[in-house]
Write a structure and sequence with these properties.
Layout: H1 2-24, H2 33-37, E1 40-43, E2 46-49, E3 54-60, E4 63-68, H3 71-79, H4 82-85, E5 89-93, E6 96-100, H5 106-141, H6 145-179
Length: about 180
């Protein structure tokens, strides 16, 4: 029983660390190739990492070339202004986009904050989905009602704490983006 609880808590803590690591080296003053490569965009309710759908090259400082593999995804990104909504300036060239990072302004910082907020909700959903999965596993793996109640309370308490930590990390990085 305790091994079960520990394993589930470790899974949730790993998700929290992933969120923290995704923004640990993020510096709004120095958005580079690595940041652009790992940018997550939403196409038809699916989160996709930008480097998975295009080849990204650094042309100049703060200017990148995005060469798309798939015409449909390229059109959806253009049609929905996905990158412009994050505050990037875009120039279309056939199946390529030229992405330019604008000068730091409050508006651009707020747009970058949107990215962080989407990541926050994405990881919060992952935690919640795991919680539901854990409770289903508890009901299937344990027969005693007292055991089930104990384990659910224990895991739920840990998940509440981890969600608080997730929010604190989000607030810390939000503050950093707005005040850097």
């Amino acid at each position: 029983m305790f091994t079960f609880i520990t394993n589930k808590i470790l899974i949730i803590e790993k998700i929290l660390k992933e969120f923290d690591n995704s923004f640990k080296n993020f510096n709004i003053k120095n958005l580079g190739l690595e940041t652009i490569n790992n940018l997550k965009i939403k196409i038809e309710k699916k989160k996709i990492i930008l480097k998975d759908i295009c080849i990204i090259k650094n042309i100049e400082e703060k200017k990148f070339s995005l060469n798309f593999n798939n015409l449909d995804q390229f059109k959806k990104i253009l049609k929905n202004n996905i990158l412009e909504n994050y505050g990037f300036q875009i120039i279309k060239k056939k199946l390529n986009l030229e992405l330019k990072i604008p000068n730091l302004s409050l508006e651009f910082r707020n747009n970058i904050l949107k990215i962080l907020k989407e990541e926050y909700y994405y990881y919060k959903d992952i935690i919640e989905n795991n919680r539901k999965k854990f409770f289903f596993e508890i009901k299937n793996n344990f027969k005693s009602k007292n055991d089930i109640i104990y384990i659910e309370k224990k895991i739920d308490k840990e998940i509440v704490n981890i969600k608080k930590n997730l929010k604190e990390i989000f607030d810390k990085y939000s503050f950093k983006i707005l005040n850097d």
